[in-house]
């Protein structure tokens, strides 16, 4: 702290919040009464010392400079990155689009939109960054068989709008069963399930033990069990084993509606 200056005052008026101090040359100064010593009354003489604290000034400058630098790092140098998408599972009528975790830096996510062949789609998309970075994928359906499409994602943020890379997919023909992915539920026996797995291999399809958005059909003889409940939640067709046999016999994908499990 630098040199301190001292001045003497006489209390001329004393209120609850403010005191009027009179200098030796009869100048009036307003002063917060809370800073006066206890017991001061009208007519009391007080000495007030005033000094400059250069150390405190330097600390405040340093703290302010550090704050500015941190703001620059958080908001000036880090910018949201464009989404990066890729093609996931594809079938005759739908495809799964996956993306890397979204990096918004310090920005806020406003909305996500799916574009197909340059047209914005009425596709349900994650509404928050937390959800988007949790699911990391969407299924878009209603596509034509054996048809090529281009997809991209628009990401609107508080820092601007960014578009992802564009990806091209081609839906499968009816004869291409490689996109078929089945999950098995309650059947007559484990032997029946093993036989169906062999059929799946012969037609070039795949099977899984867990229901997910990549599953195209849930095969079972009885509507029971957690797998069946999950299939209903995902809106996956629940079909009889006869559907799989029909696909093999005809050499192409068969309509599921004829084989729905009642």
Can you describe what's shown?
- This is BRCT domain-containing protein.
- GO terms for molecular function: protein dimerization activity.
- It comes from Coemansia pectinata.
- InterPro entries: BRCT_dom, BRCT_dom_sf, Chs5_N, CHS_Export/Cell_Fusion_Reg, Fn3_2, FN3_dom, Ig-like_fold.
- It holds the Pfam family PTCB-BRCT.
- The protein has three domains: 74 residues, Nucleic acid-binding proteins (OB fold (Dihydrolipoamide Acetyltransferase, E2P)); 86 residues, Immunoglobulin-like (Sandwich); 79 residues, BRCT domain (Rossmann fold), CATH 3.40.50.
- The protein is of the alpha+beta class and 262 residues long.
- Helix 4 links the parallel strand 15 and strand 16.
- Helix 3 runs parallel beside helix 5.
- It contains five helices and 16 strands.
- It is rod-shaped and about 115 Å long.
- Strands 7, 8, 10, 11 and 12 form a five-stranded antiparallel beta sheet that branches. It has a four-stranded antiparallel beta sheet with strand order 3-2-1-4, with no helix packed on it. Strands 14-13-15-16 form a four-stranded parallel beta sheet, sandwiched between helices.
